[in-house]
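This part of the workshop introduces the protein records we will be handling. An example says more than a description, so a record of this kind follows:
>
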Amino acid sequence: CDGVLYSDLEGVFGQVSKKMTQYISNKLNLDLKEAKELQTNYFHKYNTSLNGLMIHHDIPPREFLDYVHDINLSSIKKNESLENHLKNYKGKKIIFTNGSKEHANRVLKKVGLERNIDAIFDIIDAGYIPKPDIATYKKVLFKYNLNPSNTVMIDDLPNNLKTAQKLGIKTALIKKNFFNRNTFDYIDIICSNLSDTI
């Protein structure tokens, strides 16, 4: 979802990150600097800040998700080119996100793709076990009856694609700036936007 369906990741996820910091500060009675450090530490250690907060602080996940995704999406523009590409693509199109369905649906409406996606598999479907945990990828494959050899995963984070490749899934990385593919042998395609991969 974020970083793949639209290009202004900083404009959108920058807001989410600030809301995460504020939530942690309020909930754990930390100043903003301490809250940001904890947020970053948990992200690197547990793949999402939420995962670390649930493990160490018993944070209610739905409350957290609702709070951090209550943001302004006005920077996301409709993408008619992508809409046409997806309309003509006959395979299953599934959003696989560490965020919530509600957030993904709001993004899809802004981009104009709400009628061109078959399903959303979110962090709640994953039992709050985030990408790149292999158990969650297996859940996606099973739930939607996907054959790994006929599946492509498109993501903006190389680490998420590493797990996909281990399962025999083809991988495509969305990257706006220079990226040396030779460093990551588990990435099949690198492109600057989603339309180029379809």
Remarks:
- The beta strands are 94-96, 119-121, 152-155, 170-174, 189-191.
- The first strand starts at residue 94 and ends at 96.
- The mean pLDDT is 93.
- Residues 9-28 form the longest helix (20 residues).
